[in-house]
Amino acid sequence: MSTLGSLDVLDDVAGASLDRLTDLAARTFHAPVAFVSLIEVDRQRLISRKGLTSAGSHIRDSICAHTIGSTAGLVINDLALDPRFSSLPLVAGPPHLRFYAGTPLIAANGVAIGALCVMDSVPRQFSADDRRQLQTLGMAVMNELELRTLSGRRDPVSGLPNRHQFAIDYAARSVRTPGRPCYAVMIDVLDLPRANEAGQVLGMVPLEALIRRAGVRINLALDGVAQVYHVEATRFAFVIELPDRDAIERLVHLLHDDLIRPIMAAAVPLAPQFHAGLCEATLGRDSADDVLRKMMIGMHSALAGHVTCCWYSSLRDEGLQRSYRLATDGQQALQQDQFHLVYQPRFRAEDLTPVSAEVLLRWDHPQLGAVSPAEFIPVFERTALMDGVTAWVLDHAFTQLAQWRREGLSLTLSINLSARDVARKGMADAFIATLLCKGLSCTDVEVEITEGEWLRADSLPGEQLKQLAAAGVRVAIDDFGSGYSNFGYLTELPIHTIKLDKSMIDDLPTDTRAQLKVQAVIGLAHGLGYNTVGEGAETFEQVALLQAYGCDEIQGFALSRPVSATDLAALQTVPYVPA
User: Fold this and answer.
1) With CB atoms counted within 10 Å of each terminal CB, which end of the chain scores lower, N or C?
2) Helix axes 385-406 and 427-437, enclosed angle (nearest 10)
3) Residue 453, burial from CB neighbour count under 10 angstroms (0-12, 13-18, 19+)
């Protein structure tokens, strides 16, 4: 069974590739029945057959179980006269078979895994030439099985063993030397964005040549020391036993120096990259899948940090596992009302009257407790779940706003939209339709978006913002000053409000440069006709300075933390009095 498992031939794909040989055997010997039988622990499985409907039988009803015991094969001229087989279902009952000839299928390790057989409904003779022909066909069947195995275990570009072979070899190594410590290394020779770009410019031939040559270099450097595997399109891996971490790091840096030399790939000089992920493993304890996963975590850390190599980090692993859980639990959270909204007021600077509020999403996870939107929103943005979450926020926020309107409150709401939201075709139409469905006006709301290069006037997000603005929805740029901070592209978009990022506000009381920068931004924004909001004000000193600089609105813990809908309504009816 271990040999069968290692060959991966117990499937329909393997059988389909043998059907032509089975048919050839039937025609060669003028036999109505021919099949390839593989012997398992207690069953025989017919993975290719002609003239039989059954796909297998118990081992006690198998003639082939006797065939694999002899390298010469087995011929029974008349099954009805042989006491071993006369009572078998295929002999005693339909189709009443009388003749059998089989040759064993012997793998490269000398183990017989099954047989190629022909049968007839009448007794027959089988000559020595017939036996040789059947043996030749049996060898062809075995070659087909092993060729299929080989092609399924080697990467077609590099010719190196692939990830599947890595798993098989690692498992075998774990059985041979359980408990032995080792190190595993994964090397990325060309990150995927760069590979995609190179493929578009140069075509696949130079790209594959680069990957192939990189594999050759790694393989030559480790010749006789470790087997190299081509585990992903641009990634190679190996397992090695060395004294300590210092030794493996020295080896990795030597590989780096050798690999980054330019390679002539289809007459094009290309330079491989080198980012390696390293992990410790214990044979027999850590599975191949887990080792591959840990190497990948380390490698992605190296890619993100633009460094040669990184070790697997359990903390990063836990973070990835948590992110994955949030992504998978999000849909259930929507269905079970685990989300709720809170509102952080924005105050008019001149008299500190609340004039609007930013809608903030909160998640009370049944096991993890309160999860910050700073953690789960980036996770959701990478999945289709974000669309449903945004729809939920709009529906609940607009329902609440409609209730406030009925109660005579004039507060407006500001809704955060992600880059994914604004880039979704039809988003503006859905936004406006939801708003009008609640009996609200487009002038009742504002949308907040973060600045960035993705936001261009001629892009789909830009067009959708123009559509919202044309309908009367105000548009605010959130977190201005945290990164991109470019007024140039803003003039091409329907922007109404600039929200100064908290990082610009933090040092206002003590930093003259921060004061000058905030004054300059507010002055320029006003000159361009934008409303300004100072967000993240946590002290009254910051509030006073923003008032002095002419900021239009202020938002922050100094004035109010996020509050419930009930508390926000009460805040509108009670004048704000500083503590």
Assistant:
1) C
2) 30
3) exposed
pTM of the model: 0.66
Give residue 368's domain range.
344-573
- Same-domain status, 82 and 139: yes
Q: Which helix (H) or strand (E) segment is 466 a member of?
A: helix 460-471
Q: Name the residue among 326, 402, 319 with its Cα closest to residue 364.
A: 326
Average pLDDT over residues 90-104: 94
Contact 68, 142 (CB under 8 A): no
Structure tokens at 269: 């000089």
The C-alpha atoms of residue 82 and residue 545 are separated, in whole angstroms, by 106
Residue 442, Cβ density class (10 Å: 0-12 exposed, 13-18 middle, ≥19 buried) = middle
Would 579 be classed as within a structural domain? no
Task: Give pLDDT, residue 277.
Answer: 97
Regarding predicted confidence, which is higher, 6 or 325? 325
Same domain (yes/no): 392, 524: yes
Which structure tokens are listed for 324? 């994955």
Q: Decide if 486 contacts 451 (C-beta within 8 A).
A: yes
Same domain, 146 and 170: no
Task: Supply 519's token pair.
Answer: 């004054």
Q: Considering just the CA atoms, what is the radius of gyration of the chain in Å? A: 36
User: What is the Cβ-side half-sphere exposure of residue 109, based on CA atoms within 13 angstroms?
Assistant: 8
What is the total count of domains within the chain? 3
**Residue 578 counted as domain residue:** no
> Over the stretch 411-441, which tens digit does the pLDDT of each residue have?
899 999 988 888 888 999 999 999 999 999 9
CB atoms within 10 A of CB 577: 6
Query: Can you read off the two tokens belonging to residue 333?
Result: 């959270």
